[in-house]
Every structure is written in C-alpha cells, then in structure tokens.
Amino acid sequence: MGLMERIRRSGASWSRTIVAFRSPHPLRKGNGHDSDRLVTRIERTPEDEFKIRFAYSDERRQQASFLVKKRYTEVGYRPGGAAAPKGCPAEITLLSYLNEQVVGTLTVGLDVGQGLYADELYKAEIDRLRAEGRKLAEFTKLAVDTKRANKQVLAALFHIAYIHLRRLWRYTDMVIEVNPDHVDFYKRMLGFVDLGPQRHCPRVNAPAVLLWLEADKVDGWIEAYGGRPELAKQVRMLYPYFFSPNKDREIAHGLLDSERARAEP
After folding, report:
1. DSSP string of 106-175?
2. How far does the chain reach from its first CA to its final CA, in angstroms?
3. Domain boundaries along the sequence of the chain
4. Are 109 and 117 in contact (CB under 8 A)?
5. Number of helices (H), then strands (E), in the chain
6. Rounded distance, CA 25 to CA 217, Å?
7. CA–CA separation, 185 and 158 (whole Å)
8. In this predicted model, what pLDDT tens digit does every residue of 185-200 receive, in sequence order?
9. Are 107 and 91 in contact (CB under 8 A)?
10. Are β-strands 19-22 and 49-54 bridged in parallel, bridged antiparallel, or unpaired?
11. Phi, then psi, of 41 in degrees rounded to 5
12. Per CATH, is 3-263 categorized as 3.40.50.970?
C-alpha cells in the first residue's frame, strides 16, 4: 500500500497533532483592528500554542492550497498558471495552526520513481545525484503567514518534515527550487548550496534556482544548535529554533510507533 493510500485509510491517526509548542516570542494579535499590533509582553494563552499536523484530508489540503495561493499572489507569483509535470511526486503536506487557523504549510515530495517537480527544469542535475546512489526528496509549496507566525514556526515545519525524511525513511539529500531573491536566505539560514542555475519556472511564472542540502550536515547542525534559540544571533541560522536533539528523537520515536501500529493487521 502506498503512502497516500495509508494516509487516506488511517485518517484518525494522521489527524492528530504531531507536536505542539508555545512561542517564546511575542505574537501579533489576530483579531479586529489590532491585527498589526505587536503584543508588548509574552502572553501564555492557548492562542499562543502552535500545532503541526498532516494535511491528510481534502479540507486540510484546501487550507494549505489557499495559504500557498494567497502568499504567492502577494509576492507576484502565479501559482497554477501552468500544468504540473506528468508523474507528480508522492507527497506529504504539513500544516501549522495557531488558534486552529492555518499559519504555515510545507510539502515534501518523495523521489519514489515518479520524479520530482524539480525534474521539470533540473533533471540533469538531479540525475547526477541519483547516479551517486543518493535518496532524494524536495521541499515545495512553502507558505507562512508572516503576521501570525515567526521563525520558530518556520523551523518547526522544516524540522518535522526532516524527521520524516531522515529518521523514518532514511533520505540522504533534499533539493528546493527558490526565487533568486530568496537564495541567500536558504543558504544562510538552512545551509543549502547551489545545484542548478537560474531558469524560468512556468508553474509560478517566475525565475528559479535549484539548491541542495545534505542530510548529514543537517544532523550535525541539529545536534549542535537544536533547541537553543539563545544562539540564534550568534549562529545566524534557523537551526537554533529547531527542536532539541532529545525532542527530535522523541518525535521520531512517536512517529515510528504510529507507523508500526498502522502497519499491523
């Protein structure tokens, strides 16, 4: 049984919150005319608790799609302007909630024989990695509501995606297509490096650059910096906002237990 079929058949398990956390930073109010007012103290209320969940149902996938289209439109992209390539990848989509409202989403494409979205522009570059025996995945459709989320939310989305790729399925490398304007952010904050040159992406009618990240390096950064936000100004990467190594292992064990339970007859 394929991954997506397992998700559909085990909706109750996949509907649960993977992890919940409260931001150590002040948040913006999300109601009325106060939507842009920065809270002057850290408020410990249920509204401050972020939750990461799977987009396992049609409703949740629609929520993810709506946020992606909204954010892409705001920056001038045209999502869905061209047909997706044939043989779309197997995917899992994560959602971040604040007060039951979606504030972030990230999709992971798995290279399981159907290709990746990035193959449309960068097949030669990606095939070179495949030829080296690397197990590849890609990050796509990242969108974050910047008025209600922060770096910790972005870090949590990437970290939960990474736990699935690395701890559960033993992927070794990740790629991402990004706008040239955002290349420095991904290099500086997550450690990506160049893999493919700038080309025009018809899916969003905008230029793109292909970046590459090795899982071995991420393992080291999580071990050194994860769960230590006080290092953020010194390290200037996103990894201090990742979960601690112990929390990483705790989440991975919980997900593995869920996978084993679903696999039982």
Report:
1. EEEEE-SSS--TTHHHHHHHHHHHHHTT--EEEEEEEEE-TTT--HHHHHHHHHHHHIIIIIIT---EEE
2. 13
3. 3-263
4. yes
5. 9, 8
6. 28
7. 14
8. 999 999 999 999 999 9
9. yes
10. antiparallel
11. -140, 160
12. no
- Looking at residue 101, its amino acid is Q
Instruction: Look up the pTM and report it.
Output: 0.81
Question: Given the structure tokens 């796509």, which residue do they identify?
Answer: 140
**What digits encode the pLDDT tens for the residues 210-257?**
999 999 999 999 999 999 999 999 999 999 999 999 999 999 998 887
Name the token pair of 179.
């706008």
Query: Whole-angstrom Cα distance, residue 138 to residue 215?
Result: 12
Q: Give the tokens for residue 73.
A: 């439109």
Find the angle CA(207)-CA(65)-CA(117) to the nearest 5 degrees: 45
Structure token digits, residue 174: 């990740």
> Rounded distance, CA 58 to CA 258, Å?
22
Instruction: Please report how many Cα atoms fall inside a 13 Å half-sphere around the Cα of residue 132, on the Cβ side.
Output: 11
Q: Extract the tokens encoding 77.
A: 């992209």
Question: How many other C-beta atoms are found inside a 10 Å radius of the C-beta of residue 97?
Answer: 19
d(CA 222, CA 165): 14
- Residue linked to tokens 């709506």: 66
Both tokens of 155, joined, read 């870090």
Copy the structure tokens of residue 125. 């570059």
Residue listed under structure tokens 């559909």 = 8
Kindly list the strands in the beta sheet with 206-214, ordered across the sheet, starting from the edge strand earlier in the chain. 19-22, 49-54, 90-98, 101-110, 136-144, 173-178, 206-214, 193-201
